[in-house]
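Thread: quick sanity check before group meeting

JM: Hey all, I'm pulling together slides for Thursday and realized we never actually wrote out the predicted structure for the chain we discussed last week. Dropping the sequence here so it's in one place. If anyone has concerns about the input, flag it before I start.
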Amino acid sequence: RSPPSPSLICPESPPPWRQVLLFDPSCQHDVLRDSAHSFFLDFLRPPPPAAPPPAALPLQRVLALFSIASLCDRSAAGAGQERCLEGALPLLLAQSMRESHGVVSSDSHAGLATLEPGEPHFAAAAAVAATAAAATAAQQQPQQQPRQPSPPPPPSPPSPQQAAEASALLAQWRCLCASRLCDARPAAQHAAREAQLPALLLLELQSPEVETRACALYALCSLCSPPANDGAGRANNDSSGGVSAGGAGGGGSGEADACWRLQLGALALQSVADGSMLVRAQLCRLIVTLARRHL
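JM (edit): ok, ran it. Output follows.
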């Protein structure tokens, strides 16, 4: 079975692949076997600086994030999480969050390509200038000569309301994708910490959208979740070094590992004054998760 074509997640066509992943989770093995997950990861990478991103890119990224989250959700032996981790998904999510919040990437991630700020505006301005120059030249030509056709105008940008809705939807699915990646996986949690995802998720708590704040807390809860075990109870808890049932280390000593999670929970308590019941419910989940893991 070959990897899906780009039309499968194009917003202009029916998205059968995401429907298959939604209603038939058994196809996760086929997608991972053919390395088709890398196709969805490519949608999270920035486009070349020379070409402005298309208007449909936010929706395509949302569908790609949904597909990646579906591959990570309840996959056999965590295969989906492992393959997405190998594809540097934490770094891609962190880069997308930095781009959304206008946060400059740190030196430790300087090797990861970033979008040039304002590049689409420069391209649109150049296209408008070219249109105006062509029109002026046509007016200066003699009347007997046919007027040269002017280039087509640049596509109109989305309205502020459409841009805000697309940005909020993208932020929510970034959080949900991070949650499915890090749930009960110490190696993924360590990679997310190295990519500075916890700090970026805390920034989402300042979002005006209730759903975005709730999704951010949901992802923070997965970052603090205990590792999966095979019924051995707390024996596989990473309080002694972050070792999961499969023996993969979570990085760092147990005391340091507990420290950053408890600090994360303390910083997330700023949502205690949130007026949304949905947000406060996710905050309660985070507190209960930290209590079960570290008490």
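AS: nice. Residues 141 and 147 are 8 Å apart (CA to CA). The radius of gyration is 23 Å.
JM: adding both to the slides.
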